Amino acid sequence: MPTDGLIAIVPVLPEKVNSLREAVGRLGGMLLESLEAAAGSAAPPRHLAWTERLHFARLALFPPAPGRPEVPRLLLATDYDGEWDQHVAQLHLLGSVGERIWECCEGYAGEASFPEWIDAHTIEPGAYYIAFRDQDLEELQNAVALREEFEQQLSRPDAADRFRFFREQRNVVLLSKRCLAFTLGNLTRILQFLGSAPTVVRILRQFGFRLLLQAANHINQTLGRVGWIRVLNVLTRNSPRYDGPGSSQAGPPFSEASLNHPQRPGSPSAQVEDALFQNQLTLVTDVPPEDVARLKVVLALIDLYGRNLSTPGTLVGISTIHTVRWALIDGDRRLLMVSNYDGSWENYIDEFAEMILSGLNALWRSAPDYPRAGAQDVAALKEFLRGHQVQANLFYSAYPQSSVLNLKESMEFSRWLGWLLPSPLPTSPAAASSPHLELNA
Amino acid sequence: MNRAHSESVLLTQAAREDIQGLVTSGYPDLPCTTYLFGHFQNPGLARRWLQGIIPRVATVADWKPRSKHTAASLAAPPSPILQVALSFTGLRTLGLSEQSLGTFPPEFVEGMASAHRRRILSDDGLSAPETWEIGNPTQAAIHCLLILNTADRDGMLRLETMVLDGSHGAVSVVARETGERPPNDKEHFGFRDGIGQPDIEGIKGQGTKTGEFLLGYPNEYGYLPVTPLVSAGEDPAGVLVPSANPHRQGFHDFGLHGTFLVYRKLAQDVGAFWRFLAAESVRLTGSRSGRWMVELAAKMVGRWPNGAALTVSPDGSDPRLRDQDDFLFVVQDADGQRCPFGAHIRRTNPRDMIRPAGPTESLHMSARHRILRRGRRYGEPLFNLDLLDRPQDPALDQVFDSLPTTHGDRGLHFLCLNTSIKSQFEFIQQTWVNNPQFNGLTGSRDPLIGNGPPGQANCLFIPDDGVGRRTAPLPPFVTTRGGGYFFLPSLRALRFLARER
């Protein structure tokens, strides 16, 4: 079942803000404790019933709406499997599990009207990328557990003998992968050495379909990045504010970053990061009215690419993102970004800056305090992002020990296991006489 | 990068006279080291004392490149070296204004023992800051770190006396540590250390951009790193140079030619290390073999004990390959069969293989996270470490027969220089060394220096021509016994700090 997401921003009763903050903080502490207790295993703690079928969740105290500056808000962002109704029922459970979270919010009128109330405050994202769109939580966790089980076997003294069968298959796979890489990298030279054609043909016949798929993926990945970078470059040209990288200065460029530490806003977000190996990013930036249409086009393109053209596990070459969503909120006056990623914030932003500078510029260049040199000035970009980051009061991840790469390889591993192992013994006597299925290509 | 700048990448003579010498050299000819951690008792007296020792602080201009010819014909030993580094609290005590203090990066301000930093560095359990001998947040704050390098112990005594002369009532020594650089350059586990060092473009003409290690020069992002500043009004005498940053007019550059220094005292449990390898040898082959143990140790480190990298020399036999450090992984070692993906040197410098990015992007990313290491080891070696270069020597078997079960007092004074602590040192620790998912691995940290919660097993995955094998869970062999973030100022900045008010 495909994963889906929900973003809701609900107003909070001003007098209840502190008790809300404490309640969410206590819930977060409880989560962290149970996660630490379960450290080393991929499964989520079972006693937290509201986390069933939930991939990620966060709660954050959110800046007020432009029209109502005295009313703070609460942001709720989740990625889940299953139906919306079931998920909302679980959300209600989240709010009432030992803590009175929903009672602190304006307009909450009990469990019966909770779904309508959430629906009234739900935001539709303009772009939504999920690393593994078609796998549900159980599938991911089972794949990880399976791979861990197998890897434990590798510590055995007799591991080499035990897995000789795998070894033989693996060498063929390796050979085919090497041939593929070599072929794609040396197409012209290959054409000259047609004597090696029989070997290539034999391997193609044995693993043909899989190789073609890999080749298609490889080509798509390369073209995808290059193609979309070009499109985004077109969209970021001719901008009144964006000067382009390093264009206005002669000599070595100076970063705009200010480093005024005591006054720098947003650094509280950094303080609560890195409790797990995954982190979350919640960003709110202002959008000038004349830029809204362009931004909508950019978001639509990102959504199109993310849904249809990106290979599972990477978004234009960035492989640390689990899910990311962008949405225009507050009457299209603000851009919200909600992301779950692996590793540290520094690494995440560095990867963006390395892989898709024009994407960063396309999204945020119209924000009033965006660096003049664009995302190229990475130090100033980081200052800008920290300044607009909203601290999350609660962050839940269903698989905090697994990175995107881990999940991808675990799933590939279970698929390969399915390929390589013979099918299970039939149970009926009639079927017992029929031969096993041979899986050889 | 603009080609027009390439002629001017070398540091000028004026710059060399301003930069403390540690940036260009670890002073291999001065094997004795003392680290003095000081606490300023009186700001005025401390400034006067600092004024007195500045003439003795060694700069890059004093450094002569070591060469085979000059070493043999040295008539007199090289002169002793003094370097001065200051912590955030030290800079504040010396009288730097709050506005200037606010221009220092947050990780330096917080210090290594803060709640966030310790999460980043995985300093918990036995490595928790509350157990530290140096930089313990519950003890007197460390304001300065003095690094003294001399040729022998007598010279050290003289230098220490000279440095601390006039410090009465000004500076008290909170901790005193000694280190050494042995002739075989080996650290305590038995491996030759210090081979993987980046070349600084400003010194060698090519290599990693100077701005990665020295403030005031372009870094690998193509920008000048953000640098601490002082307002022009605080520097009427013009001791410091005005900032060249067009966004920062009216400020003087305090950080120019300075850099950040990370110090960590790392205790190494050598007995536990070799006992683990002995146990693995028995478990997997049925008998204990010194050769097998050294091979597994080499897989953990990524180099043979004599320093040859596994990628370059899979069987470690050619001694000429000992010093080769300019190799890449993708070409000869893409599947990790020579140097495992999780090995120490592959983690601390992934070069062109940071999955799933391609080689070019990986090289860009690797270049942005290099550090200059200047550490020294302390404590007596547990055994003759040269034996590891000849594992079939029966003396090695005798050593392994009698490995102690208690933790001795030996380890490494780890010291590194970089212009951005969070982007370089902390990044390496958090994203590469202690990351259980580094490069697509699962549940394994650095086998040598990794530290994680006790519930998480740390196994090294060793690819081979089969499916690969995994070691048993590795206990932590290295614990943090102390540490701190310091700033290594230029001579100008030191004079500015020491000026009369």
In short:
The complex is a heterodimer of chains A (441) and B (501). With 441 residues, chain A is α+β, with helices and mostly antiparallel strands.
Task: Summarize this structure as a short list of keywords or feature phrases.
heterodimer; A: 441 residues; alpha+beta; 5-stranded antiparallel sheet; 4-stranded antiparallel sheet; 15 helices; 46% helix; 14% strand; disordered C terminus; B: 501 residues; 26% helix; disordered N terminus
Characterization of this structure:
The complex is a heterodimer of chains A (441) and B (501). Chain A has 441 residues and is an alpha+beta fold. Chain A is 46% helix and 14% strand. Chain A has 15 helices and 9 strands. Chain A has helices spanning 17-37, 84-96, 114-120, 137-153, 159-162, 164-185, 187-192, 197-236, 267-271, 292-309, 345-355, 357-364, 378-388, 404-420, 429-432; strands spanning 4-11, 54-62, 73-80, 122-123, 127-130, 278-286, 321-329, 334-342, 394-397. Chain A has a 5-stranded antiparallel β-sheet with strand order 4-1-3-2-9. In chain A, a hairpin with a 4-residue loop joins β7 and β8 (334-342). Mean pLDDT of chain A is 77; it is low at 238-249, 260-266 and 425-441. Chain B has 501 residues and is of the alpha+beta class. Chain B is built from 17 helices and 14 strands. Chain B is globular, with a radius of gyration of 23 Å. Mean pLDDT of chain B is 89; it is low at 1-6 and 68-75.
